[in-house]
Design a protein that fits this description.
The chain is mostly beta strands and about 425 residues long. It has one domain: Methylamine Dehydrogenase, Chain H. The chain is about 5% helix and about 45% strand. The chain is built from two helices and 31 strands. The strands form eight sheets. It has a five-stranded antiparallel β-sheet with strand order 1-26-25-22-21, with no helix packed on it. A four-stranded antiparallel β-sheet has the order 4-3-2-31, with no helix packed on it. The longest helix has 6 residues.
């Protein structure tokens, strides 16, 4: 099973364990399984348009690894890159003791995320929320946790799921500073004896529930995905509505469509390979359909992220196994990664792979014009732009961030 805390710690340059997959060429990977609950009727809203504004700049937070064993975590800084010229327009000072970062994103169709990131220190176990301001970034809240399990943002609110213990809760922060609320999250349902027998012991399943993903809603919410290694729940914290995803052992990402449909990237734990599926839920959280991506945990799956690139839903799920790459301060055996990018569309649901070179990054973000930006990990200080809504998506431009040997760890289009 993919461990989210392990994934979170891979943000910096010291990562690099991932897989290639025979099913990752261009073409339709899967089509929807038969709906398990209420099928969608003709009132399905087709994604037609959002504010189709291309990013004029990329605010990139990057890490410069240290060659000094006494300060092995290195330091992080930020730089603003103009997308037209590809040249830096500004650069901030270093972010003090922060050593990692997580981009604040809004996986909700047509909604603008808060422009910022959560920076945290693996040494001190503290986090801070930073948002873009004129001339750089400003800290708006301090969070006593060693990096969030999940984060998301919308309008002027920021949601964080803390890594600190039980009971589960989601904290809401304002962009002008301070905690707005803390809402409890129900635990995922307990495993059944049948499910216990189906999960291999070597997966190390056990312990309590954890939060895998958060998705804001235009009104109410947010939606929160919680799992216990056997089953998962998607919960609307405002209404209490729930979707019980029996057999899905882990939820890695959520996205909300223009008609309120919910898309869930989840691992099916009912077999020995734990395939990565995309599950579609109605706006009332009834399960509609699911489709396989063709990827499995056994492929060396590192993470999975859903995002809206303009009117196109994208899934990025890098895996290990690509040719090795040279990484500063790392052993020569470090593995490269396969850049598995998918577009998700249709009724019934289908997943189409986009053929891309290896080692484009661990993470993605997007803008309103349908451009996807891949960064992190073996890509080091290079950000790759892919116009997902073009007839034949491919890398159209790359941007260099910071000095050679640094690593992009958070990216905010603006």
């Amino acid at each position: 099973m993919v461990k989210r805390r392990q994934l979170a710690t891979m943000l910096g340059g010291s990562i690099l364990v991932v897989i290639g997959c025979a099913a990752c060429g261009s073409g339709v990977i899967g089509s929807a399984h038969a709906p398990t609950k209420n099928s969608k009727s003709a009132e399905r809203v087709v994604a037609s348009s959002v504010s189709a504004v291309a990013a004029s700049a990329l605010n990139v937070v990057y890490k410069v690894p240290s060659t000094d064993a006494a300060v092995a975590d290195g330091v992080i800084s930020a730089e603003t890159i103009e997308t037209v010229s590809g040249s830096p327009s500004s650069q901030t000072a270093q972010f003090g003791s922060l050593t990692q970062a997580q981009t604040l994103r809004s996986p909700t169709y047509g909604e603008t995320p808060v422009s910022g990131f959560v920076g945290y220190s693996t040494a001190s176990g503290t986090s801070s929320i930073w948002v873009t301001k004129a001339g750089g970034f400003a800290e708006v809240a301090s969070v006593p946790a060693d990096g969030p399990l999940a984060s998301a943002s919308i309008s002027n609110e920021i949601y964080l799921a803390s890594a600190a213990g039980q009971p589960l809760s989601v904290e809401t922060y304002g962009t002008t500073g301070g905690l707005l609320s803390s809402d409890p999250v129900p635990s995922a349902p307990p495993p059944t004896s049948t499910q216990l027998s189906q999960v291999p012991a070597e997966k190390g399943i056990g312990g309590g529930s954890t939060i895998g993903a958060i998705a804001p809603l235009s009104s109410g919410g947010p939606l929160v995905a919680v799992d216990n290694g056997f089953n998962s729940l998607v919960v609307n914290l405002s209404t209490g509505a729930k979707a019980n995803l029996a057999g899905y052992s882990s939820v890695l990402s959520l996205a909300v469509g223009p008609d309120g449909s919910v898309y869930v990237a989840a691992l099916d734990g009912r077999g020995s390979t734990s395939p990565l599926d995309v599950v579609e839920l109605s706006s009332s959280l009834a399960q509609v359909a699911s489709v396989s991506t063709g990827l499995e945990v056994s492929n060396g799956l590192l993470n999975a992220q859903l995002t809206w690139a303009g009117s196109q839903l994208a899934l990025y799920a890098p895996t290990t196994g690509a040719p090795p790459v040279a990484v500063p301060n790392e052993a020569a055996t470090s593995s490269g990664i396969a850049s598995n990018l998918f577009s998700i569309s249709g009724d019934p649901l289908n997943v189409t792979a986009v053929t891309l070179p290896a080692n484009l990054g661990l993470y993605l973000n997007s803008d309103g014009a349908g451009n996807v930006y891949l960064y992190g990990g073996p890509a080091e200080n290079v950000v790759s732009e892919v116009p997902l809504q073009s007839a034949s998506p491919a890398v159209s431009q790359t941007y260099d961030v910071g000095p050679t040997g640094s690593f992009a760890i958070a990216l905010i289009p603006s």
